[in-house]
C-alpha cells in the first residue's frame, strides 16, 4: 500500500495555488528576485517519517525561522533564568522589526522579534565569541537539526546588510542598555548570517519535528536539545511566533509556528509532528500568503489544531492483553503521557484479571513522559496491593527510575517467554 500523505499535501497545495496575492519581500534585494510561484510543503512525524510535495527541493534562506531554534540553543547552553534575565517571554503584538524594549528593564519582550533574536544570538558560543566562530557554531547546530550540512547564502546576507539600518539601530539600542556586549555591526552581521542559512521545506519539517520530539532528531536519532527546552521554545512560538497575528493564528490554526520573510513557514505539534510550507509571496504581516492558507487547511482537514479536544495520540495505548500461563501481559504502544496512562489505568480498573502476575510491556512504546511513568508505576503498585505479582517488560529501559511511591522497585521481567521478538507493528 502506498501511503496517502504526499497526496493530501499535494491536494492542499493545489487548493492554495490560486492565491496569488501578496508580494515577495523587497527590502532585501536578493529576496525580491525570488520566483514568486514556488510552492512546497513537507511533514515529518516524530517517528521520523518524512513526506513532501511541490517544490520540496528548492533552497531558500531561513530568515526569522532561525529565531526559535537559536533561542532553544541559548536555553540549552545557559538555562532559562539567565536567558530570561536578558529577553522576556511575552507576546509583543508588534511587527518583527519593531524598535521596542520593555519600558522598565529594557529587555526585548520576546526572542521572536528582532531585538530579542539578536540578543539571544549574542549568547551563542559564549559571549566573548568572535563572529565567525559564533556563526559556524550556529551553522553546525542547525545542520544537526536538519540532519544534513546546511550552507549560508552570503549573497542574500550581503544584500540585506546593505540596507540594515533598522536592525543596526536595534543593536545600538541593545548596546546602550547593556543587553548585548558585541559591537552593533558584529551583532547585526552574526544575526543576518544566521538568517541566511539555506534550507528546503523538507529540512524545515525535520527541524521542527525535532522540537516536537523533545529534542531528538527523529531521523538521525541524535539527542540535540532537552525536552524542557523544546517545551519552552514551542510555548514562546505559540504566543509570539506569528508577531502581531499571533492570537488570531492560535485561534484559527492552533499550531505553534514561525514564519520567515523568504516565504518559509514552520509549525510543530508537540509529540506528533513538524510541518512546513514554502511560498515567497507575503502578506502585510510578513507571513507567506499561501503558507498561511495551507496551514489553515492542514489544521482543519488533518485535525491538527493543538486545542482541539479530540487531539489524542493516534494509537490506542493498550495494544492487547495476552495471557501466558499465570501471567497477564498488558502490551502497550505509542506515547505514554497523561492521557495514555489515564486510559490504561481506567481500563485495568475494570479488567477482570484472573492471572497471578501482571506485566506492563513497554517494548512497543515510543516515549514515556514523567507523569505517564509516575501514573503507570502507581497503577502497578496498587495492583500489587490488591494481591498481584507485578513487573514490567522494558527492553529499552524507558522506565529508567523504577522506584515506586513506597520506595520499592518495579521488577523488570525481560525474559524471552514474554517478549514479542522482532514484530513490526508500524
Ligand atoms: O531581520 C530581518 O529583517 C530578516 N533578516 C528576518 C526577518 C523575518 O524573516 C521576519 N519574519 N517574518
UniProtKB/TrEMBL annotation:
The domain of life for this entry's organism is Bacteria
Q: Name one Pfam family in it.
A: STAS
Molecular function, one GO term: glutaminase activity
Q: Which UniProt keywords apply?
A: Acetylation, Hydrolase
Give the STAS domain ranges: 317-407
List the coiled-coil residues.
Answer: none
Q: What class of enzyme is it?
A: hydrolase
The EC number(s) attached to this protein equal 3.5.1.2
InterPro entries reported in the protein's UniProt record? Beta-lactam/transpept-like, Glutaminase, STAS_dom, STAS_dom_sf
Task: Provide one Gene Ontology biological process annotation.
Answer: L-glutamine catabolic process
PROSITE patterns for this protein: STAS
Q: Gene3D superfamilies this protein is in? A: DD-peptidase/beta-lactamase superfamily, STAS domain
- Provide the residue positions that the database annotates as binding substrate: 64, 114, 160, 167, 191, 243, 261
Q: Which reaction does it catalyse?
A: L-glutamine + H2O = L-glutamate + NH4(+)
Q: By its UniProt entry, which NCBIfam families does this protein fall under?
A: Gln_ase, PRK00971.1-4
Question: By its UniProt entry, which HAMAP family does this protein fall under?
Answer: Glutaminase
**How is the subunit organization of this protein annotated in UniProt?**
Homotetramer.
UniProt-recorded name of the protein: Glutaminase
Give the organism, scientific name. Answer: Corynebacterium stationis
**Classification of source organism:** Bacteria, Bacillati, Actinomycetota, Actinomycetes, Mycobacteriales
Amino acid at each position: 500500500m502506498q501511503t496517502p500523505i504526499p497526496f493530501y499535501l499535494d491536494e492542499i497545495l493545489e487548493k492554495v495555488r490560486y492565491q496569488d496575492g501578496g508580494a515577495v519581500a523587497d527590502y532585501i534585494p536578493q529576496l525580491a528576485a525570488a520566483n514568486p510561484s514556488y510552492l512546497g510543503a513537507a511533514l515529518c512525524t516524530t517517528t521520523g517519517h518524512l513526506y513532501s510535495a511541490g517544490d520540496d527541493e528548492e533552497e531558500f534562506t531561513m530568515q526569522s525561522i532561525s529565531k526559535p531554534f537559536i533561542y532553544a540553543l541559548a536555553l540549552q547552553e545557559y538555562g532559562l533564568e539567565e536567558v530570561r534575565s536578558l529577553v522576556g517571554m511575552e507576546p509583543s503584538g508588534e511587527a518583527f522589526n519593531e524598535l521596542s524594549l520593555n519600558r522598565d528593564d529594557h529587555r526585548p519582550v520576546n526572542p521572536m522579534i528582532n531585538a530579542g533574536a539578536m540578543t539571544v544570538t549574542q549568547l551563542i558560543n559564549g559571549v566573548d565569541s568572535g563572529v565567525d566562530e559564533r556563526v559556524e557554531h550556529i551553522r553546525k547546530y542547525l545542520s544537526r537539526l536538519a540532519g544534513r550540512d546546511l550552507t549560508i547564502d552570503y549573497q542574500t546576507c550581503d544584500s540585506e546588510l546593505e540596507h540594515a539600518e533598522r536592525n543596526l539601530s536595534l543593536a545600538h539600542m541593545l548596546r546602550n542598555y547593556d543587553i548585548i556586549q558585541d559591537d552593533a555591526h558584529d551583532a547585526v552581521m552574526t544575526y543576518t548570517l544566521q538568517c541566511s542559512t539555506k534550507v528546503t521545506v523538507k529540512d524545515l519539517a525535520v527541524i521542527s519535528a525535532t522540537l516536537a520530539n523533545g529534542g531528538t532528531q527523529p531521523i538521525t536519532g541524535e539527542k540535540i536539545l532537552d525536552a524542557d527546552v523544546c517545551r519552552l521554545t514551542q510555548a514562546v512560538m505559540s504566543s509570539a511566533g506569528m508577531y502581531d497575528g499571533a492570537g488570531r493564528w492560535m485561534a484559527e490554526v492552533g499550531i505553534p509556528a514561525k514564519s520567515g520573510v523568504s516565504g518559509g513557514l514552520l509549525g510543530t505539534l508537540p509529540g506528533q509532528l513538524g510541518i512546513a510550507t514554502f511560498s515567497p509571496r507575503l502578506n502585510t504581516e510578513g507571513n507567506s500568503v499561501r503558507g498561511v492558507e495551507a496551514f489553515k487547511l492542514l489544521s482543519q482537514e488533518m485535525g491538527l489544531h493543538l486545542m482541539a479536544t479530540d487531539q489524542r495520540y493516534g494509537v490506542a495505548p493498550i495494544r492487547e492483553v495476552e495471557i501466558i500461563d499465570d501471567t497477564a501481559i498488558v502490551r502497550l504502544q505509542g506515547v505514554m503521557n497523561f492521557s495514555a496512562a489515564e486510559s490504561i489505568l481506567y481500563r485495568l480498573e475494570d479488567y477482570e484479571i484472573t492471572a497471578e502476575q501482571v506485566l506492563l510491556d513497554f517494548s512497543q512504546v515510543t516515549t514515556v513522559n514523567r507523569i505517564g511513568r509516575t501514573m503507570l508505576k502507581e497503577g502497578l503498585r496498587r495492583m500489587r496491593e490488591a494481591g498481584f505479582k507485578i513487573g514490567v517488560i522494558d527492553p529499552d529501559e524507558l522506565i529508567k527510575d523504577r522506584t515506586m511511591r513506597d520506595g520499592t522497585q518495579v521488577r523488570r521481567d525481560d525474559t524471552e517467554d514474554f517478549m514479542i521478538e522482532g514484530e513490526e507493528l508500524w
